[in-house]
Amino acid sequence: MLESIATFIKTLPNWLGTIVEVLFVIVIFMTAMTFIAGMWCGMRIVGRRAQEIEAIELWPPRIKFKE
Asked: In angstroms, rounded to a whole number, what is the distance separating the alpha carbons of residues 27 and 41?
């Protein structure tokens, strides 16, 4: 898939190809940063109550705590 994207970018004019490459890198970087920030927030929220976790469900996504 990345090869086809790279091939498409190379067919664009030089200035537009550069802009598309930069935007592509920014989108990947921001996606990774959002994922890391979400994991960090989740760890901070759940970390205080980690001993009280009863179950983690993937669908629907939820964490059940002991009452």
From this structure: 21
* b (16+ CB within 10 A) / e for 9-46: eeeeeeeeeeeeeeeeeeeeeeeeeeeeeeeeeeeeee
pLDDT in tens, 26-60: 999 999 999 999 989 888 877 777 778 888 888 88
Domain count, the chain: 1
pTM for this one? 0.59
CA distances from 52 to 28, 41, 49, 57, 65 (A): 35, 18, 5, 15, 5
- 53 is in which domain, residue-wise? 2-65
58 φ, ψ (degrees, to nearest 5): -85, -35
